[in-house]
Specification:
The protein has 264 residues and is mainly α. The protein folds into 2 domains: 1-157, no CATH class; 168-264, no CATH class. It is 62% helix and 4% strand. It has 13 helices and 4 strands. The protein has helices at 12-22, 29-36, 54-70, 79-94, 107-117, 119-125, 143-152, 163-167, 170-177, 180-183, 186-203, 208-225, 233-263; strands at residues 4-6, 9-10, 43-44, 50-52. The longest helix is centred in the C-terminal third of the chain and has 31 residues, at 233-263.
């Protein structure tokens, strides 16, 4: 049995100090060394349960920088190149066997990667320098992509394994992964993602923001009455599809009413 490969972790106070020092820009190597270098109390590795892996840490950095570079890093990014980076990085992270451990569930692991190792990629992906993109959590630049890759993976035997990762819009991703009631259940998250893709193919991606919002409300209410997690795959798919059908119908009706008022 192989041991879990442990990664360095950065406490929130370390992230905060680095961001305060860098004042609106990604932390520089000198700032990083000054604040968290040596025996810094802000950096740590789990005391047991595995062994520290410098090799895996380097592989993460090199892999993500390579994907970013393919999409224009360090030059200015566009919405298109940022979307391509997100999809490619999510697939790479989700397919990385060494990352399929509980170690990657730790927010502080992703905080170290984003703030201490490749803050330049964070700044390139999110030029507005939102601190949430450095701190660990669902909005961390890389943690959010790992969550997408792991959760939306349809499996090696699926003919289009990464379809959901590639086709969902950023708004749809946020609607799924920043709602704990959905994100905490991988089957439900995949079901909602599949429902979004199928509905978007029918009515067009441009109409999906309102439909997605309404569908998630319907599913949240249904989940309070009937625990969706206890449904089999077929039953869950039926509930999700019904929610999207109702939401799409409601959106279409609202659009028709507005058009009638404008014409009158």
């Amino acid at each position: 049995m192989s041991r879990v490969q442990l990664l360095p972790r950065l406490k929130d106070i370390g992230v905060a100090q680095l961001l305060d020092t860098s004042t609106g820009a990604p932390p520089t190597p000198a700032q990083i060394t000054e604040i968290i270098g040596g025996d810094s109390p802000f950096v740590w590795v789990a005391a047991s349960g595995g062994s520290f892996s410098d090799q895996l840490t380097r592989a993460l950095v090199e892999g993500l920088v390579e994907i970013a570079s393919k999409n224009g890093y360090p030059n200015d990014s566009s919405r298109e190149t940022r979307a391509m980076f997100d999809a490619e990085a999510a697939i790479w992270l989700g397919d990385h066997a060494a990352l399929a451990t509980g170690e990657l569930l730790r927010d502080d692991v992703w905080a170290f990667l984003a703030t201490a190792l490749i803050p330049g990629v964070v700044s390139w992906r999110f030029p507005e320098q939102n601190p949430e993109r450095y701190f660990g959590g669902v909005r961390n630049t890389f943690q959010r992509l790992w969550m997408r890759g792991v959760t939306l993976d349809l499996g090696e035997t699926h003919p289009d394994r990464w379809k959901l990762v590639r086709e969902l819009s950023e708004d749809a991703m946020v609607a799924i992964f920043e709602r704990p009631a959905i994100a905490s259940d991988p089957r439900l998250a995949r079901g909602v993602a599949a429902g979004w893709v199928e509905t978007a193919q029918k009515i067009g991606r441009g109409k999906m923001e309102r439909v997605m919002r309404q569908a998630t409300i319907i599913l949240r209410v249904r989940n309070q009455v009937l625990d969706l997690g206890h449904l089999d795959d077929e039953g869950l798919l039926a509930v999700v599809n019904e929610a999207f059908e109702v939401a799409a119908g409601t959106a279409e009706a609202s659009s028709s009413v507005r058009s009638s008022r404008e014409d009158s």
